[in-house]
Amino acid sequence: MQIMDPIFCYQVPVVIGAGISGAAIAMLTPNVVVYDKGRSYGGRVSSKQGTNQATFDFGATMFRDPMEVRWLGREIKYSIVEIWKSQSVSLQTKPIYSESHFYPPLGMANLVSAMLGNVKPIQSHTLKRMERTDGNTWNLEFHNSATKQTDTICTHSVILTLPIPQILEIFQRSTENHYLKLWSEFLENYNDYRKTLVSYFYWDQWKPDWKALYLDPEAKIPITTNLEPGTDWEYQSWESLKYPREFHSGSALLVQFGALFSETHFDNWMDEKKNPNPNDKGYLIQSLKEIFNAPEPNLIWNHRWKYAQAQMPLLGREGPLDLDSEAFEEWKHLCKETGITVLGDWLFGPKIERIVGGIYFLSHNDLL
Ligand SMILES: Cc1cc2nc3c(=O)[nH]c(=O)nc-3n(C[C@H](O)[C@H](O)[C@H](O)COP(=O)(O)OP(=O)(O)OC[C@H]3O[C@@H](n4cnc5c(N)ncnc54)[C@H](O)[C@@H]3O)c2cc1C
């Protein structure tokens, strides 16, 4: 294996991943450097603009507020919106679906950009491997997809916010090391993710019959989504109702397909330009007709999330984040001993409020 030769040594923690976890860290500790492999930040909280420049969210679609933490036998409630206010994060949010659900009218990715604030992530940098030096620091080797070159830096503190399979790949590529082995063994217990396929449909001259779909765009808190757990077309979000300004005569729908459908259709779901393969295209158009009485859409854009949501979070999936467990004590010990902190939805659960509230709580109680 080639020896790493860092061009630079940071005196501040280096965060890998500019998703909601990385952004929450940057909000609370702006004195960090953030690297991300993508061309833009957001990770699984990502928004895009379709053909008519209308925004749609193809990862998370909304968040809940408040959230709760259980620590030292007490349960404490936190409002995410209040956390943002206390950190001077400038972010507009609107209620949607119910009184406890919200979204930003500028698109979900706005959550990430607002929390990043002045911290500008270094994009297009994929962490490939890491190595412990004699001076108790970590060398980090990145592939820069813009220049096709290798950049190596070093730091005394690494914060990883990637899904576990991507972390384990980096560890496997790295020089053998006792600390990486300890982390690998620990993380294996939580390494379970579901896949999710999504499709975005856009019609420039057609809207469904909202009433027939039990949706109410005129309600004070608009209901814009349908959830049918366990079915193929599991979650339907009418993005044109969420972002109505861009739509006059048309409409747009984002569908998140169920776990079984996503698993079985994953490999052939789309081509490089994110067009559906011809078989699936026929199926999608036929289903749109059957379910919504919809004509063929003007646009179909597909995406696939390989590690969509962690299934067995260490701090629990529902209810308060449980910090009173032995596993959490072990996590704290590993972070301290190794100079590597591993965060993300495998720890808090795949919910924006749990991640933001959880990172806030850990940071404010010196647990991070
Ligand atoms: C389809 C879908 C719908 C969802 N709906 C909701 C919802 O409505 N409400 C809700 O609360 N939650 C929802 N979730 C869950 C939520 O989106 C995630 O739990 C959350 O976004 C995870 O954030 P993260 O920052 O921990 O990880 P990520 O968003 O995955 O961020 C990790 C970042 O690391 C980068 N990265 C990966 N590998 C490397 C590498 N080697 N080097 C450098 N960078 C790397 C990635 O580019 C990414 O930006 C949904 C998720 C999906 C997929």
Automatic annotation (TrEMBL):
Cited Pfam families: NAD_binding_8
GO cellular component, one term: extracellular region
SUPFAM superfamilies hit by this protein: FAD/NAD(P)-binding domain (SSF51905)
GO molecular function, one term: oxidoreductase activity, acting on NAD(P)H
Record field: transmembrane: 7-28
InterPro entries referenced in this protein's UniProt entry, alphabetically: FAD/NAD-bd_sf, RNLS
Domain of life from the UniProt record: Bacteria
Regions annotated as coiled coil: none
Key words of the record: Membrane, Transmembrane, Transmembrane helix
Identification of the protein by name: NAD(P)-binding Rossmann-like domain protein
Source organism of the structure: Leptospira terpstrae serovar Hualin str. LT 11-33 = ATCC 700639
